[in-house]
Amino acid sequence: MTTSKTEEKQIAIPTFVMEPKPGATPAMLQPPQDSRLERIQEFLAQPVIASFIAGGVAGAVSRTVVSPLERLKILFQVQSAGRNEYKMSVHKALAKMWRDEGWRGFMAGNGTNCIRIVPYSAVQFSAYNVYKQFFEDTPGAQLGPYQRLFCGGIAGITSVTFTYPLDIVRTRLSIQSASFETLKKTEGQKLPGMWGVLTSMYKNEGGFRALYRGIIPTVAGVAPYVGLNFMVYEIARNQFTPEGQADPSALGKLGAGAVSGAVAQTCTYPFDVLRRRFQVNTMTGMGYQYKGIFDAIRMIVKTEGLRGLYKGIVPNLLKVAPSMASSWLSFEMTRDFVMGKRRENFL
């Protein structure tokens, strides 16, 4: 049997084997592994984790931007019939707040609000991504409007349940330094901070249950609000996306966020008023003591009319547009940055 010259050449090719260097360890002979930084980046790039981080950033940014209007809304909401300290237009009320308390008045309760809103928003966005997986035909598939509504509602309930004590403390901090005649403090008296209010409520107002006073109207309002917010945002987002492009511009995202926030808040605003009233229901000098939700609605309508259920809606609408606009924009920007600017279809 004969072999061709080509075969002879192939057979003649020598094989070189790399000999390990003296002192080489088995780890040195293994192929290079992914670095720790790459593993961390891969972990953070998961949709649920990226949403958790981006949601926290979005919450802090949006609340700080509109802190003066957020506090003014609360002051309007908790002011019952016969109380006229803040019965005035928005710009006059903001001017009064500035005269009475200065810049610190604009930011009163914002530190606690950010401490609350960071985990609240983080849990909300990440929980939404967890719940929507049960409705996806394939991973990353688009959800229908009603599926978004439902998943957003459940995500809202989840987030508010985890962070509600901080919300009720934020409300107390927002009004304790305001110039309500019946709440005036002794000159020079130091007002309690977040932990002081939490401790006082726990000891003097019924223990753990005091920290969840008003949770029922809160959940009743948060579930449809968050659900509408997610549903309307995606619809508006598609409308603001230029033809032939996958995503809207930054201005388009701002516009979609403003629309979604305004629609969701207007539809669910009376629940927000009830939440604030119950959060301060046991404070002396507020002029009301409600026995339950239906009693509160009856008393508000009786003494303040239907408009009483919409007290504070003007500063609220003025704040909700920039609030939700900045929230959605900062969420998308942070999420894309964490995920390495890879557009994942998980909204």
TrEMBL record:
Keywords for this protein: Calcium, Membrane, Metal-binding, Mitochondrion, Mitochondrion inner membrane, Repeat, Transmembrane, Transmembrane helix, Transport
A Pfam match: Mito_carr
Gene3D superfamilies tied to this protein: Mitochondrial carrier domain
Location in the cell: Mitochondrion inner membrane
UniProt key word Transport: yes
Coiled-coil parts of chain: none
Keyword Transmembrane: yes
Solcar repeats: 46-134, 143-239, 248-337
Membrane topology value: Multi-pass membrane protein
Main location: mitochondrion
GO annotation, biological process: transmembrane transport
Single Gene Ontology MF annotation: metal ion binding
GO cellular component, one term: mitochondrial inner membrane
Role summary: Mitochondrial transporter that mediates uptake of thiamine pyrophosphate (ThPP) into mitochondria.
Family indicated by similarity: Belongs to the mitochondrial carrier (TC 2.A.29) family.
Name of this protein: Mitochondrial thiamine pyrophosphate carrier 1
Species for this entry: Aaosphaeria arxii CBS 175.79
